Protein backbone atom coordinates (compact mmCIF):
# COMPACT_ATOMS: atom_id res chain seq x y z
CA UNK A 1 0.00 0.00 0.00
CA UNK A 2 1.27 3.44 -0.84
CA UNK A 3 2.53 5.47 2.05
CA UNK A 4 -0.14 8.09 2.74
CA UNK A 5 2.11 10.09 5.06
CA UNK A 6 4.24 12.92 3.88
CA UNK A 7 7.19 14.11 5.92
CA UNK A 8 7.99 17.79 6.16
CA UNK A 9 10.35 19.66 8.45
CA UNK A 10 8.96 22.58 10.35
CA UNK A 11 11.01 25.30 12.04
CA UNK A 12 9.98 25.69 15.67
CA UNK A 13 10.98 29.35 15.59
CA UNK A 14 9.38 30.74 12.45
CA UNK A 15 7.06 27.97 11.28
CA UNK A 16 8.77 27.59 7.88
CA UNK A 17 8.17 24.19 6.27
CA UNK A 18 10.78 22.50 4.08
CA UNK A 19 10.92 19.09 2.48
CA UNK A 20 14.52 18.40 3.57
CA UNK A 21 16.11 18.54 6.95
CA UNK A 22 18.87 21.10 7.43
CA UNK A 23 20.85 22.24 10.43
CA UNK A 24 19.91 25.84 9.78
CA UNK A 25 16.42 27.09 8.99
CA UNK A 26 16.48 28.49 5.43
CA UNK A 27 13.96 31.16 6.36
CA UNK A 28 14.94 32.61 9.74
CA UNK A 29 18.49 31.27 10.01
CA UNK A 30 18.02 29.66 13.45
CA UNK A 31 20.16 26.60 14.12
CA UNK A 32 18.78 23.20 15.02
CA UNK A 33 15.15 24.22 14.97
CA UNK A 34 13.79 22.01 12.16
CA UNK A 35 11.60 19.22 13.52
CA UNK A 36 10.02 16.39 11.62
CA UNK A 37 6.28 16.54 11.02
CA UNK A 38 4.18 13.77 9.50
CA UNK A 39 1.30 15.04 7.45
CA UNK A 40 -1.38 13.04 5.72
CA UNK A 41 -0.66 13.29 2.01
CA UNK A 42 -3.60 14.07 -0.29
CA UNK A 43 -4.81 10.92 -2.03
CA UNK A 44 -3.60 10.32 -5.56
CA UNK A 45 -5.69 11.23 -8.54
CA UNK A 46 -7.16 14.28 -6.84
CA UNK A 47 -7.25 16.15 -10.14
CA UNK A 48 -10.07 13.96 -11.42
CA UNK A 49 -12.11 14.22 -8.23
CA UNK A 50 -15.61 15.63 -8.48
CA UNK A 51 -16.38 18.87 -6.68
CA UNK A 52 -18.98 18.67 -3.90
CA UNK A 53 -22.45 20.17 -4.31
CA UNK A 54 -22.34 23.93 -5.04
CA UNK A 55 -21.46 26.06 -2.05
CA UNK A 56 -23.05 29.50 -2.03
CA UNK A 57 -21.15 32.40 -0.51
CA UNK A 58 -23.37 34.92 1.32
CA UNK A 59 -23.62 38.68 0.95
CA UNK A 60 -22.12 40.44 3.93
CA UNK A 61 -25.21 42.65 4.17
CA UNK A 62 -27.39 39.56 4.55
CA UNK A 63 -25.50 38.12 7.50
CA UNK A 64 -27.47 37.88 10.70
CA UNK A 65 -26.04 40.02 13.47
CA UNK A 66 -28.92 39.79 15.90
CA UNK A 67 -27.14 37.34 18.18
CA UNK A 68 -24.55 38.64 20.62
CA UNK A 69 -21.06 37.79 19.43
CA UNK A 70 -19.11 38.90 22.48
CA UNK A 71 -19.54 38.25 26.15
CA UNK A 72 -17.94 39.90 29.17
CA UNK A 73 -15.50 37.67 31.04
CA UNK A 74 -16.22 39.37 34.36
CA UNK A 75 -12.61 40.58 34.53
CA UNK A 76 -12.50 44.16 33.26
CA UNK A 77 -8.80 44.20 32.40
CA UNK A 78 -9.10 40.95 30.44
CA UNK A 79 -12.10 42.30 28.50
CA UNK A 80 -10.10 45.41 27.65
CA UNK A 81 -7.24 43.38 26.17
CA UNK A 82 -9.63 41.13 24.24
CA UNK A 83 -11.21 44.23 22.68
CA UNK A 84 -14.39 44.43 24.74
CA UNK A 85 -14.98 40.84 25.83
CA UNK A 86 -14.38 37.36 24.44
CA UNK A 87 -15.80 36.49 21.01
CA UNK A 88 -18.06 33.45 20.91
CA UNK A 89 -16.38 30.55 19.11
CA UNK A 90 -12.89 32.02 19.27
CA UNK A 91 -9.71 30.35 20.42
CA UNK A 92 -7.51 32.44 22.68
CA UNK A 93 -3.97 31.45 23.55
CA UNK A 94 -2.65 32.76 26.87
CA UNK A 95 1.14 32.55 27.15
CA UNK A 96 3.47 33.38 29.98
CA UNK A 97 6.36 32.18 32.11
CA UNK A 98 5.63 29.42 34.63
CA UNK A 99 4.22 30.74 37.90
CA UNK A 100 3.27 34.11 36.49
CA UNK A 101 -0.44 33.54 37.16
CA UNK A 102 -2.04 32.15 33.99
CA UNK A 103 -4.01 29.43 35.79
CA UNK A 104 -5.04 31.90 38.48
CA UNK A 105 -6.30 34.41 35.92
CA UNK A 106 -8.33 31.86 33.97
CA UNK A 107 -9.75 30.18 37.05
CA UNK A 108 -10.80 33.57 38.41
CA UNK A 109 -12.50 34.25 35.09
CA UNK A 110 -14.37 30.92 35.43
CA UNK A 111 -15.50 31.91 38.90
CA UNK A 112 -16.92 35.28 37.91
CA UNK A 113 -20.65 35.65 38.35
CA UNK A 114 -21.01 37.65 35.16
CA UNK A 115 -20.37 34.72 32.82
CA UNK A 116 -23.54 32.76 33.57
CA UNK A 117 -22.69 29.90 31.21
CA UNK A 118 -21.48 26.35 31.58
CA UNK A 119 -17.70 26.17 31.85
CA UNK A 120 -15.26 23.29 31.66
CA UNK A 121 -11.78 23.74 33.09
CA UNK A 122 -9.44 21.03 31.82
CA UNK A 123 -6.14 20.74 33.63
CA UNK A 124 -3.31 18.52 32.52
CA UNK A 125 -1.10 19.83 35.29
CA UNK A 126 -3.14 19.55 38.45
CA UNK A 127 -5.31 16.84 39.96
CA UNK A 128 -8.99 17.44 40.73
CA UNK A 129 -8.13 17.75 44.40
CA UNK A 130 -5.49 20.37 43.70
CA UNK A 131 -7.94 22.25 41.51
CA UNK A 132 -10.51 22.19 44.29
CA UNK A 133 -7.90 23.55 46.73
CA UNK A 134 -7.04 26.32 44.30
CA UNK A 135 -10.74 27.18 43.83
CA UNK A 136 -11.21 27.32 47.59
CA UNK A 137 -8.23 29.62 47.93
CA UNK A 138 -9.62 31.93 45.28
CA UNK A 139 -13.12 31.75 46.76
CA UNK A 140 -14.62 30.17 43.65
CA UNK A 141 -17.79 28.23 44.24
CA UNK A 142 -19.66 28.45 40.97
CA UNK A 143 -22.36 25.87 40.17
CA UNK A 144 -21.60 26.24 36.46
CA UNK A 145 -17.93 25.33 36.71
CA UNK A 146 -16.88 21.78 35.91
CA UNK A 147 -13.31 20.50 36.13
CA UNK A 148 -11.54 17.67 34.39
CA UNK A 149 -8.00 16.52 35.15
CA UNK A 150 -7.06 14.83 31.88
CA UNK A 151 -4.28 14.88 29.31
CA UNK A 152 -5.71 12.68 26.53
CA UNK A 153 -7.21 14.90 23.87
CA UNK A 154 -9.82 12.36 22.77
CA UNK A 155 -11.09 11.98 26.32
CA UNK A 156 -11.17 15.75 26.70
CA UNK A 157 -13.19 16.08 23.49
CA UNK A 158 -15.62 13.42 24.60
CA UNK A 159 -15.95 15.21 27.94
CA UNK A 160 -16.79 18.41 26.07
CA UNK A 161 -19.27 16.53 23.93
CA UNK A 162 -21.03 15.12 26.98
CA UNK A 163 -21.12 18.34 28.99
CA UNK A 164 -21.74 20.80 26.14
CA UNK A 165 -20.04 23.75 27.82
CA UNK A 166 -19.99 27.21 26.28
CA UNK A 167 -16.54 28.02 27.58
CA UNK A 168 -13.57 25.64 27.80
CA UNK A 169 -10.18 26.26 29.40
CA UNK A 170 -7.26 24.00 28.46
CA UNK A 171 -4.38 24.31 30.93
CA UNK A 172 -1.95 23.77 29.23
CA UNK A 173 -1.54 22.88 25.57
CA UNK A 174 1.90 21.43 26.30
CA UNK A 175 0.47 18.76 28.61
CA UNK A 176 -2.28 17.38 26.39
CA UNK A 177 -1.67 14.83 23.67
CA UNK A 178 -3.41 13.11 20.80
CA UNK A 179 -2.83 9.38 21.37
CA UNK A 180 -2.59 8.72 17.62
CA UNK A 181 0.51 10.84 17.30
CA UNK A 182 3.65 9.18 18.52
CA UNK A 183 5.52 12.36 19.52
CA UNK A 184 5.73 13.34 23.16
CA UNK A 185 3.31 15.88 24.69
CA UNK A 186 4.68 19.39 24.25
CA UNK A 187 6.44 18.57 20.98
CA UNK A 188 5.66 20.81 18.07
CA UNK A 189 3.68 18.06 16.27
CA UNK A 190 1.47 17.42 19.29
CA UNK A 191 0.96 21.07 20.13
CA UNK A 192 0.04 21.84 16.56
CA UNK A 193 -2.35 18.92 16.09
CA UNK A 194 -4.07 19.45 19.43
CA UNK A 195 -4.54 23.15 18.76
CA UNK A 196 -5.86 22.42 15.29
CA UNK A 197 -8.49 20.02 16.65
CA UNK A 198 -9.49 22.47 19.37
CA UNK A 199 -9.75 25.24 16.78
CA UNK A 200 -12.07 23.09 14.68
CA UNK A 201 -14.22 22.42 17.72
CA UNK A 202 -14.41 26.13 18.55
CA UNK A 203 -15.48 27.08 15.04
CA UNK A 204 -17.90 24.21 14.44
CA UNK A 205 -19.72 24.31 17.75
CA UNK A 206 -19.29 27.96 18.70
CA UNK A 207 -17.44 27.10 21.91
CA UNK A 208 -15.04 29.72 23.23
CA UNK A 209 -11.74 28.11 24.16
CA UNK A 210 -8.90 29.58 26.20
CA UNK A 211 -5.66 27.63 25.87
CA UNK A 212 -2.68 28.14 28.18
CA UNK A 213 0.75 27.92 26.55
CA UNK A 214 4.05 27.91 28.38
CA UNK A 215 6.82 30.02 27.00
CA UNK A 216 10.35 28.87 26.34
CA UNK A 217 13.61 30.50 27.41
CA UNK A 218 13.39 33.12 24.69
CA UNK A 219 9.97 34.17 25.95
CA UNK A 220 7.80 32.83 23.14
CA UNK A 221 5.23 30.04 23.19
CA UNK A 222 6.71 26.67 22.17
CA UNK A 223 6.23 26.42 18.43
CA UNK A 224 5.33 30.10 18.49
CA UNK A 225 4.58 31.12 14.96
CA UNK A 226 2.88 27.84 14.14
CA UNK A 227 0.39 28.43 16.95
CA UNK A 228 0.08 32.17 16.45
CA UNK A 229 -1.02 31.68 12.85
CA UNK A 230 -3.74 29.25 13.88
CA UNK A 231 -5.44 30.89 16.83
CA UNK A 232 -7.64 33.99 16.88
CA UNK A 233 -5.98 35.79 19.70
CA UNK A 234 -2.61 35.55 21.47
CA UNK A 235 -2.23 37.11 24.90
CA UNK A 236 0.99 37.28 26.88
CA UNK A 237 0.97 37.52 30.64
CA UNK A 238 4.14 39.24 31.80
CA UNK A 239 5.75 40.58 34.92
CA UNK A 240 8.64 40.17 37.27
CA UNK A 241 8.30 37.40 39.82
CA UNK A 242 9.80 39.69 42.41
CA UNK A 243 7.00 42.25 42.08
CA UNK A 244 3.27 41.74 42.36
CA UNK A 245 2.61 43.70 39.19
CA UNK A 246 1.40 41.74 36.12
CA UNK A 247 0.66 42.95 32.60
CA UNK A 248 -1.54 41.22 30.05
CA UNK A 249 -0.74 42.17 26.47
CA UNK A 250 -2.26 41.10 23.15
CA UNK A 251 0.28 40.01 20.52
CA UNK A 252 -2.43 39.15 18.00
CA UNK A 253 -6.14 39.80 17.99
CA UNK A 254 -8.43 39.03 15.08
CA UNK A 255 -11.31 40.86 16.74
CA UNK A 256 -9.73 43.94 18.25
CA UNK A 257 -6.66 46.08 18.61
CA UNK A 258 -3.39 44.85 20.05
CA UNK A 259 -2.55 48.12 21.73
CA UNK A 260 -4.43 47.74 24.97
CA UNK A 261 -2.82 46.28 28.07
CA UNK A 262 -4.44 44.90 31.20
CA UNK A 263 -2.78 45.57 34.53
CA UNK A 264 -3.13 43.25 37.52
CA UNK A 265 -1.75 42.92 40.98
CA UNK A 266 -1.15 39.47 42.46
CA UNK A 267 -2.20 39.33 46.08
CA UNK A 268 -3.14 36.85 48.80
CA UNK A 269 -6.46 36.07 47.19
CA UNK A 270 -5.46 36.01 43.56
CA UNK A 271 -5.22 38.64 40.86
CA UNK A 272 -6.94 42.01 41.07
CA UNK A 273 -7.37 44.36 38.14
CA UNK A 274 -5.65 47.69 38.66
CA UNK A 275 -7.84 50.56 37.45
CA UNK A 276 -5.23 53.12 38.16
CA UNK A 277 -1.83 51.70 37.19
CA UNK A 278 -0.02 55.05 37.37
CA UNK A 279 -0.85 55.48 41.05
CA UNK A 280 0.52 52.04 41.82
CA UNK A 281 3.67 52.63 39.77
CA UNK A 282 4.37 55.96 41.39
CA UNK A 283 3.75 54.98 44.99
CA UNK A 284 6.76 55.22 47.28
CA UNK A 285 8.85 57.64 45.20
CA UNK A 286 11.88 58.90 47.06
CA UNK A 287 11.71 62.54 48.10
CA UNK A 288 14.48 64.94 47.16
CA UNK A 289 16.50 62.22 45.46
CA UNK A 290 18.44 62.99 42.30
CA UNK A 291 18.13 60.68 39.27
CA UNK A 292 14.38 60.14 39.03
CA UNK A 293 11.86 61.57 36.60
CA UNK A 294 8.32 60.61 35.62
CA UNK A 295 7.45 59.73 32.01
CA UNK A 296 4.05 59.26 30.43
CA UNK A 297 3.56 56.56 27.81
CA UNK A 298 0.40 55.54 25.98
CA UNK A 299 -0.63 51.92 26.34
CA UNK A 300 -3.40 51.74 23.79
CA UNK A 301 -5.89 54.42 24.67
CA UNK A 302 -4.69 54.69 28.24
CA UNK A 303 -1.91 57.02 29.42
CA UNK A 304 0.37 55.42 32.01
CA UNK A 305 2.85 57.26 34.17
CA UNK A 306 6.05 55.51 35.14
CA UNK A 307 9.12 56.49 37.07
CA UNK A 308 12.47 56.31 35.28
CA UNK A 309 15.45 56.11 37.59
CA UNK A 310 19.06 56.65 36.66
CA UNK A 311 22.29 56.27 38.53
CA UNK A 312 25.40 57.76 36.97
CA UNK A 313 28.73 57.40 38.69
CA UNK A 314 32.29 57.79 37.54
CA UNK A 315 33.59 54.55 36.11
CA UNK A 316 36.46 52.81 37.81
CA UNK A 317 37.48 51.04 34.64
CA UNK A 318 35.55 50.77 31.35
CA UNK A 319 32.20 52.57 31.51
CA UNK A 320 29.37 50.08 31.81
CA UNK A 321 25.72 50.57 30.99
CA UNK A 322 22.78 48.63 32.35
CA UNK A 323 19.19 49.08 31.36
CA UNK A 324 16.00 47.66 32.75
CA UNK A 325 12.65 48.40 31.13
CA UNK A 326 14.16 50.48 28.35
CA UNK A 327 15.73 49.44 25.06
CA UNK A 328 19.51 49.28 25.52
CA UNK A 329 20.30 50.87 22.16
CA UNK A 330 17.85 53.69 22.77
CA UNK A 331 19.43 54.38 26.15
CA UNK A 332 22.92 54.37 24.61
CA UNK A 333 21.71 56.88 22.01
CA UNK A 334 20.20 59.14 24.67
CA UNK A 335 23.47 59.10 26.65
CA UNK A 336 25.39 60.06 23.50
CA UNK A 337 22.96 62.92 22.78
CA UNK A 338 23.32 64.11 26.37
CA UNK A 339 27.10 64.14 26.01
CA UNK A 340 27.25 65.84 22.64
CA UNK A 341 24.24 68.19 22.73
CA UNK A 342 23.52 68.57 26.43
CA UNK A 343 27.14 69.27 27.39
CA UNK A 344 27.25 66.68 30.18
CA UNK A 345 30.30 64.47 30.16
CA UNK A 346 28.53 61.16 30.75
CA UNK A 347 30.58 59.01 28.38
CA UNK A 348 33.20 58.23 31.02
CA UNK A 349 30.57 57.22 33.58
CA UNK A 350 28.80 54.03 34.52
CA UNK A 351 25.09 54.48 33.88
CA UNK A 352 22.26 52.37 35.25
CA UNK A 353 18.72 53.07 34.07
CA UNK A 354 15.70 51.38 35.57
CA UNK A 355 11.95 51.67 35.08
CA UNK A 356 10.08 51.03 38.32
CA UNK A 357 7.44 48.32 38.47
CA UNK A 358 8.80 46.02 35.76
CA UNK A 359 7.13 48.07 33.03
CA UNK A 360 8.93 48.36 29.73
CA UNK A 361 8.81 51.72 28.02
CA UNK A 362 9.14 51.23 24.30
CA UNK A 363 7.73 54.57 23.27
CA UNK A 364 10.03 57.48 22.32
CA UNK A 365 7.84 59.80 24.43
CA UNK A 366 9.77 58.51 27.44
CA UNK A 367 13.08 59.84 26.04
CA UNK A 368 12.92 63.23 27.69
CA UNK A 369 12.22 61.82 31.15
CA UNK A 370 15.12 59.38 30.73
CA UNK A 371 17.51 62.16 29.67
CA UNK A 372 16.42 64.32 32.60
CA UNK A 373 16.78 61.45 35.08
CA UNK A 374 20.34 60.80 33.84
CA UNK A 375 21.19 64.53 33.91
CA UNK A 376 19.75 64.85 37.41
CA UNK A 377 21.88 61.98 38.66
CA UNK A 378 24.99 63.28 36.88
CA UNK A 379 24.55 66.76 38.38
CA UNK A 380 23.40 65.26 41.68
CA UNK A 381 20.42 67.57 41.84
CA UNK A 382 16.83 66.39 42.38
CA UNK A 383 14.14 67.31 39.87
CA UNK A 384 11.39 67.48 42.46
CA UNK A 385 8.41 65.22 43.01
CA UNK A 386 6.00 67.50 41.13
CA UNK A 387 7.74 67.24 37.75
CA UNK A 388 6.97 65.03 34.76
CA UNK A 389 8.45 65.12 31.25
CA UNK A 390 7.06 64.12 27.88
CA UNK A 391 8.91 64.30 24.57
CA UNK A 392 10.98 62.45 22.03
CA UNK A 393 14.68 63.28 21.79
CA UNK A 394 16.23 63.45 18.32
CA UNK A 395 19.87 62.93 17.39
CA UNK A 396 20.52 66.69 17.21
CA UNK A 397 19.29 67.03 20.75
CA UNK A 398 15.97 68.52 19.63
CA UNK A 399 12.81 67.70 21.59
CA UNK A 400 10.09 66.49 19.25
CA UNK A 401 6.36 66.38 19.52
CA UNK A 402 4.55 63.23 20.63
CA UNK A 403 1.06 61.95 19.84
CA UNK A 404 -1.92 62.38 22.16
CA UNK A 405 -0.21 65.06 24.22
CA UNK A 406 -3.46 66.38 25.69
CA UNK A 407 -4.46 63.01 27.10
CA UNK A 408 -1.03 62.63 28.65
CA UNK A 409 -1.17 66.11 30.20
CA UNK A 410 -4.61 65.43 31.63
CA UNK A 411 -3.36 62.25 33.32
CA UNK A 412 -0.21 63.98 34.59
CA UNK A 413 -2.34 66.73 36.12
CA UNK A 414 -4.86 64.26 37.56
CA UNK A 415 -2.10 62.52 39.49
CA UNK A 416 -1.09 65.74 41.16
CA UNK A 417 1.93 66.85 39.16
CA UNK A 418 2.37 70.62 38.94
CA UNK A 419 5.12 71.01 36.32
CA UNK A 420 5.62 69.23 33.02
CA UNK A 421 8.42 69.63 30.47
CA UNK A 422 6.99 69.40 26.95
CA UNK A 423 8.27 69.96 23.39
CA UNK A 424 8.16 73.59 22.27
CA UNK A 425 6.75 72.58 18.90
CA UNK A 426 3.60 70.53 19.14
CA UNK A 427 1.30 69.35 16.40
CA UNK A 428 -2.06 69.85 18.06
CA UNK A 429 -3.34 72.75 20.04
CA UNK A 430 -2.56 72.21 23.71
CA UNK A 431 -5.40 72.08 26.20
CA UNK A 432 -3.54 73.09 29.33
CA UNK A 433 -4.91 71.55 32.52
CA UNK A 434 -5.49 74.52 34.88
CA UNK A 435 -3.16 73.44 37.67
CA UNK A 436 -0.28 72.26 35.53
CA UNK A 437 2.61 74.59 34.68
CA UNK A 438 4.00 73.75 31.23
CA UNK A 439 7.71 74.16 30.48
CA UNK A 440 8.13 74.10 26.68
CA UNK A 441 11.70 73.35 25.55
CA UNK A 442 13.33 73.15 22.12
CA UNK A 443 16.33 70.96 22.91
CA UNK A 444 18.09 68.95 25.57
CA UNK A 445 20.18 71.91 26.72
CA UNK A 446 17.05 74.01 27.33
CA UNK A 447 15.38 71.15 29.18
CA UNK A 448 18.35 70.81 31.55
CA UNK A 449 18.47 74.59 32.02
CA UNK A 450 14.75 74.75 32.73
CA UNK A 451 14.65 72.18 35.51
CA UNK A 452 18.19 71.65 36.73
CA UNK A 453 19.47 75.21 36.70
CA UNK A 454 22.41 76.12 38.85
CA UNK A 455 21.68 78.84 41.41
P1 LIG B 1 -0.26 30.16 38.65
O1 LIG B 1 -1.57 30.72 38.27
O2 LIG B 1 -0.23 28.76 39.14
O3 LIG B 1 0.82 30.35 37.52
P2 LIG B 1 0.91 29.67 36.08
O4 LIG B 1 -0.35 28.97 35.80
O5 LIG B 1 1.17 30.83 35.17
O6 LIG B 1 2.10 28.77 36.12
O7 LIG B 1 0.32 31.16 39.76
C1 LIG B 1 1.22 30.71 40.64
C2 LIG B 1 1.84 31.85 41.42
O8 LIG B 1 0.94 32.81 41.88
C3 LIG B 1 2.46 31.22 42.62
O9 LIG B 1 3.84 31.56 42.61
C4 LIG B 1 1.76 31.79 43.78
C5 LIG B 1 1.07 32.99 43.27
N1 LIG B 1 -0.27 33.20 43.85
C6 LIG B 1 -0.48 34.23 44.73
O10 LIG B 1 0.43 34.98 45.07
N2 LIG B 1 -1.74 34.42 45.24
C7 LIG B 1 -2.78 33.61 44.92
O11 LIG B 1 -3.90 33.83 45.40
C8 LIG B 1 -2.54 32.54 44.00
C9 LIG B 1 -3.64 31.61 43.60
C10 LIG B 1 -1.28 32.37 43.49
MG1 LIG C 1 -0.63 26.91 35.65
> Strands across the major sheet, in which order?
8-7-9-10-6-11-12-13-14
- Any idea what the shape is? elongated
| Alpha plus pi helix count | 11
Helix/strand-derived category reads alpha/beta
Q: Report helical residue fraction.
A: 25-40%
Record the SSE blueprint.
Elements: E1 5-11, E2 17-18, E3 34-40, E4 70-71, H1 76-82, E5 86-87, E6 91-96, H2 102-111, E7 119-123, H3 128-138, E8 145-149, H4 153-163, E9 167-171, H5 188-205, E10 208-214, H6 224-230, E11 233-238, E12 245-253, E13 261-267, E14 270-273, H7 277-282, E15 292-299, E16 302-314, E17 321-324, H8 328-340, E18 349-355, H9 367-379, E19 387-389, E20 392-393, E21 399-400, H10 405-414, E22 419-423, E23 437-441, H11 444-451
Parallel strand pairs: 6-10, 6-11, 7-8, 7-9, 9-10, 15-19, 17-18, 19-22, 22-23
Antiparallel strand pairs: 1-2, 1-3, 4-5, 11-12, 12-13, 13-14, 15-16, 16-18, 20-21
Features:
455 residues, alpha/beta, Rossmann fold, Ribosomal Protein S5, domain 2, 3 domains, nine-stranded mixed sheet, 11 helices, binds thymidine-5'-diphosphate, binds magnesium ion
Q: Can you characterise this structure?
A:
- With 455 residues, this protein is α/β, with parallel strands linked by helices.
- 25% of the residues lie in helices and 27% in strands.
- It has eleven helices and 23 strands.
- The protein has helices at 76-82, 102-111, 128-138, 153-163, 188-205, 224-230, 277-282, 328-340, 367-379, 405-414, 444-451, and strands at residues 5-11, 17-18, 34-40, 70-71, 86-87, 91-96, 119-123, 145-149, 167-171, 208-214, 233-238, 245-253, 261-267, 270-273, 292-299, 302-314, 321-324, 349-355, 387-389, 392-393, 399-400, 419-423, 437-441.
- Strands 8-7-9-10-6-11-12-13-14 form a nine-stranded mixed β-sheet, with helices on both faces.
- It is elongated.
- It binds thymidine-5'-diphosphate and magnesium ion (MG).
- Residues 102-103, 125, 171 line the site of magnesium ion.
